[in-house]
Each structure stands twice: as structure tokens, then as C-alpha cells.
């Protein structure tokens, strides 16, 4: 069973296997991304080298508390946190998810127009030779992470399809409304040796009523949890974002590890859907990072615009998604 987290409907029963979600934090294969940190176009890679290296980061042993760890995350360059910055595009300096083909790999959707309701969503990843790819390195225990969003960013699903022997990926999705959608795949083809994010548009037929991204707000409520966002997005600069989780007015101090982290953050820009995936500073069991109420992310976005942020966190054995709208300034 896979999960479908539709923001705005919060069908969290579907999160039963959302535990396989964006274990993108396991971008240990992305050590080469640290090389990009010096490039302006790859600022979002500044934290991608992999949690495997995180424990070895110089100075972490001396960070006796969470506050000290957060301060460490602000150190100039932040290159040592090469796993925690934005997971974005590698080709030609573009943000992630803007290309259907990158580094010779193509996201091939089986259908470009589908009906509303429950569907079997099918696609393939084609390699440089045009054949379906069947060998991938795992990213947080999964060979592929699929994120589907409405282009207005009012719907968000993160699921983990199953790969068939012929290289076709399949997953059941419930997409209730007509409109324009985009699918993103985070993958690490074994032959490529790094992670890329591919994106492709599709549509749901029916009575389509266009909308816009929700207005910015700093606190959202989901299933009785209040999540507050502190910090700002600044184009071309790495910044800290802190999300604080409370329930019934009390801080939640026993967040559960969810795919090797206390939270996962996907950021999408309204208008072009430039894609950024961020992992928290610190990780469960490192002797430094507290299990809430704060989850801190070192974040870099590719430019000006309005962004939609989707935070997944786990508490009470259930994964929930809190969504925010935040502009990026100069």
C-alpha cells in the first residue's frame, strides 16, 4: 500500500505506508554534490553530500544541544552539510524538476490525460539508449520517490510506486479534481551515479476551474497539530527555516523518526514548479538533535517567486503534511 497525502483534504489514513516517503535524506550517494556548493547556480546543493557524512562532520561532537547545532548550520559555506541543502537539478544549472529529460534519462508517462478519481498511474524511466532503466540505487530505502502536485499547488501526493520487471512503475492514485498536474521522480540510476529529479506534466479531464496558490500564512493546522514556520526565503542565499510542531497548545517533544529524519520538506515555486527537497539539520540518534518541537532546515531556493512548502512529520505513528505559502525576496 502506498500513501496519498492530498493537502487540503488530509486523507491521512492513506499514510499507512507513507513511511516509505521522501527518504531523500539518504542522498549519501550525492557526495559529489558538495562540489557544486561553490557554484552560484548550485547553491541549493549545499547540503546534499549525504547523512552518511553528517555524523563525521567536524565540530558536531562539540554541539551539545540543539541550539548549538542550529548555529552550526549557519556557518559560512555550509559545505559540510552537503546533505541538508536543497535537492535540486544538476543539468545545466537548472533547478530540479524542470526537465523531462536530464543527463540522458527521460520520464515517460504512460498517459498524458487521465480521468478523475482512482487511477493506476504508470510510467517508465528511459535511459540514454532509449530502453527502460531497471537498476537504481536506493534513496532512503526506495529506488524511486514520486511526487504529484496540482499546478496551482493546492494538491500534493508523495507515493512510492512498484517497479515491474520490464521497467514499468505503477501506483494507485486518487486524484479527485480536473486540472493540470505535474509528476516528479527522484531517482539515482546506478549507471549515472548521482540523483536527478525529472518532471512531466499531465492532465485530469473534466470541469477545470483554475485557481492560485493559497495566501501566505505562518501557522497552519492539520489534524489538531499547529505548525508554525519561522524564517524567510531569500533568493540566492542559504537561510534557516524552523518549523515548530504543537498539539493542543503544547510543544510536541516526541516526534518520531520518519525515514531517517524528524521531517522532510519539499518546496515548489508557483508558476514553473521549480523543485527543491530539503532535509533537516541533524538526524535521529546523533546525540544532538532533539525530537521536536522544532525542525530546522538549511534552505536555498533558485530565485525570486512565491513558493509552496510541504512539511511531512510523524507523530502518534502517523505521517501528516503541513503546507505553507512563502515568498522569496532578494
Short description:
The protein is mostly beta strands. It has helices at 51-54, 66-73; strands at 101-102, 105-109, 113-114, 117-126, 144-150, 156-159, 162-163, 168-175, 179-187, 196-204, 219-222, 225-230, 233-234, 239-247, 250-251, 264-269, 275-278, 294-299, 305-315, 318-329. It is built from 2 helices and 20 strands.
CATH H-tier superfamily of the domain at 219-328: Immunoglobulins
What order do the strands of the largest sheet run in, or round the barrel if closed? 1-2-4-8-7
Secondary-structure element sequence?
HHEEEEEEEEEEEEEEEEEEEE
User: Which bin fits the share of residues in helices?
Assistant: under 10%
What class, by secondary structure content? Answer: mainly beta
Query: Biggest β-sheet, characterized?
Result: 5 strands, antiparallel
Q: Number of DSSP strands?
A: 20
Secondary-structure arrangement, i.e. CATH architecture of the domain at 219-328: Sandwich
Spatial separation of the terminal alpha carbons: 43 Å
- The third-level CATH topology of the domain at 219-328 is Immunoglobulin-like
- Determine the mean pLDDT: 79
Oligomer: single chain
* Unreliable sequence segments: 1-86, 88-92
Q: What's the tally of helices?
A: 2
Shape: globular
CATH class of the domain at 219-328: Mainly Beta
State which percent range the strand residues make up.
35-45%
Q: What would the keywords be for this entry?
A:
330 residues; five-stranded mixed sheet; Immunoglobulin-like; disordered N terminus; single chain; 36% strand; mainly beta; 20 strands
